[in-house]
Amino acid sequence: MVFSSLLQRSEVSGRGVLLALPLGFLLALLTTLYPLPGMALGVGLGVVLALSKQPQLLMIPFVISLAIPIQRTFAGLPLNATDGLLVLWCLLWPFMLQREQAPHLGRWRVPLLVWAITPFLIATCLAQIGSIAQGNSLKQILRIVEWFMVLPVLLMIFRPQPAFWRFAALTMLLVPCLFAIDGLYELASNGTRLTGMLGIPVPIPEGDMAQIRHTFDISGRAGSSFGGAQGLAMYLVMTMSVAIAHLLISPRPGLRLLAGLCLLVCLGGLAATKSRGGLLGALALVLVMLVVFRPVLLRWLVLLGVLAALAGVLTIAMLPNWDGTIADLVPGRPEAVLDRLIIWGVVFDVFKDNPLFGVGLGNFRDEFFARGVSLNVELGYSSLHAHNTYLEILADTGLVGLLGYLAFLLTVARHLARRWRERCGDDAAVFTLAAIGTLAAYMVFASVDMLLLQNMHFLLVLLLGLGVSDSRADAVGLKVSEPEQMA
Fold first, then answer.
1. pTM flag (> 0.85)
2. I need a labelling partner for 289 at 20 to 30 A (CA). Which of 56, 196, 297, 371 fits?
3. Between 125 and 332, whose confidence is greater?
4. Contact at 8 Å (CB) between 404 and 120?
5. CB environment 231-265: b (16+ within 10 A), e (fewer)
6. Which of 36, 86, 78 is nearest to 62 (CA)?
7. What b/e sequence results for 350-366 when a residue is b if at least 16 CB atoms lie within 10 Å of its CB, and e otherwise?
8. What pLDDT digit, counting tens, does each position of 12-48 carry?
């Protein structure tokens, strides 16, 4: 056993020498001819080698890039920094497998998220049959594959050990604070962003900027590098689940204290967004996590919910100036409510015409404009969605697609609940609880926004992937391999 181990190490060293010789010669030649590009390539190669040995370091720029949704079009495909990092992650995959702490290939299984999303992915492919814009639908299908299949497979490179959980916790606690502080500064400085001073622009669609209703100069709502307040709100709420989980069950007092401080910062940033959807998502996240943590609270929450509903009905009934319409219940934005009612009406019309497979994933906007429907608030640029993920999926992929999407949510929720019941009180349980809260917040966001148009799914899949990880399986594998190492 010792001889075979030494022989294996010598083979790895031999491959390293064979790789180092030509690369070293090329770098030396390039540096001699072109000093700056040669030195930049050398530094880049060093970073790549460091990432291949410590792949968790890639999580830091990855989580940061999720809050910088700047897109560039390449060969007709909209790409951003997150996509580039994902490509780098794929290219480094063979090198990551060579490190000592890499998981053993014999214990790999198809990730839960991959087979859970498969029915919905099949439904999106079937929707291509009646798609009114097949190229646009194909782009969205590739996004689904990237979010729910590629990323879960790449996450399998991590061995869930205590050091990894600590690193993941620090990343998910500290990085969101940067953008929360940016939002607070944006609100305090009347629109000036720290990220903007660093040269990071916000994604602004083409058209008349005066018609864009989501930037700070129009709405007064902080959006940080997202530009739109809703994007920052969703980012902060979904990452706050890690801080709340550490406050509730963290086995490490230091991380619990840090989680409390980070949660205060993120709550401040959430307040700066003035997002109703963000507030609803945060309430759902906290309530679900508390009920899961203390099931006895459920009866009290149900009672409070019934009382709140009765109080709300009585309050609305006694409003002296209420004209009986839904739009009048939203002060200052009745036209936005009316527009949503118009859009939802078109959704059901599209569904009636295409009940099974819809008009193709991501094509509701084109179908809406083709029907010549007018809104009270014109955006000034060709962009529209149903303000509800469930309804837009119904229009895009029909009843088959909606059932596949709901099946994905239900499957993941049941698996997280089972994993929580089997918890061992370790760091993995913290992320399981955080994933449960994140899924609850996501489902609420889906009722007020169209999430399939956003890269927020990267963050969702990252947290869900960590939540369904099982450190105990890896621990068993380590115990089995200890006698071999001793031999």
1. no
2. 56
3. 125
4. yes
5. bbbbbbbbbbbbbbbbbbbbebeebeebbeebbeb
6. 86
7. bbeebeebbbbbbbbbb
8. 445 555 555 666 666 566 666 666 666 666 666 667 7
